[in-house]
Write a structure and sequence with these properties.
The chain is mainly beta. The chain contains 2 helices and 21 strands.
Length: 228
């Protein structure tokens, strides 16, 4: 009896992850897809290389890279942390960032030429500053959920996206379209996927201690750039 009681107490004292599941899956595109042509850098080729890959839609074996999958509903924790956006070889790394509110974004430059980073945001303070070679990182806290476009006013092909979410339960799909959101408390939620070109989809889901496997299927490509 004492052993059973000890085991019960031990289980109850284990952190919440013991009573949680992971959401795993893939984002896939089922329509017709042609590889986009790279951007030509022209007079900047010495510093940037002669061309830059267009990352507005990257698909490998139907898997969609750079989709943002986010969980909504319930009392989900923020999981605040620091996130980094770098300007390297005349492109943003990473191309897509997802981060919870009240987290700090640190912007760096690794390039030997100037950049002007410009964020198009309304809920958070916009950024519009010049980055010189060797400049120290610029930091800003993101205080409100928002989808933010990032561009360089000096190089038209440079673009990134910052997706600020209400909580820390989000992920960006990898090169094969796969994603995972770990340690989700049991409950009923809305799971949303957003992609800068393909748009957004939402599913109602229920999570138990076993977790959930779920895929998102994009069927067509919108004629205009999608924004949530």
């Amino acid at each position: 009896m004492q052993i059973i009681l000890f085991l019960v107490i031990t289980i109850l004292l284990i952190p919440g992850s013991a009573f949680s599941g992971s959401i795993k899956g893939k984002t896939v595109f089922l329509g017709k897809y042609e590889q986009l042509k790279p951007y030509q850098t022209g007079s900047y080729k010495k510093a940037c290389g002669s061309n830059i890959q267009n990352e507005s839609i990257l698909i490998k074996n139907k898997g969609v890279m750079n989709s943002v999958i986010s969980l909504h509903g319930g009392k989900l924790k923020k999981r605040t942390s620091d996130y980094t956006l770098n300007q390297k070889k005349c492109k943003y790394e990473p191309h897509v960032i997802t981060m919870p509110v009240d987290s700090e974004l640190k912007i760096h430059t690794s390039d030997p030429i100037n950049h002007n980073i410009h964020t198009y945001s309304f809920e958070n303070d916009p950024i519009n500053i010049m980055f010189l070679p060797g400049q120290e990182a610029y930091s800003q806290e993101m205080e409100e959920p928002e989808l933010i476009k990032v561009e360089c006013d000096l190089h038209h092909w440079m673009r990134a996206w910052i997706v600020v979410t209400p909580n820390g339960y989000s992920a960006v799909s990898g090169t094969d379209g796969s994603f995972e959101i770990p340690d989700v408390p049991p409950g009923d939620y809305e799971l949303t996927v957003w992609h800068e070109t393909l748009g957004s989809l939402t599913k109602s889901i229920s999570i138990d201690n076993e977790g959930l496997d779920i895929n998102f299927e994009f069927l067509d490509t919108p004629q205009k750039e999608a924004m949530r």
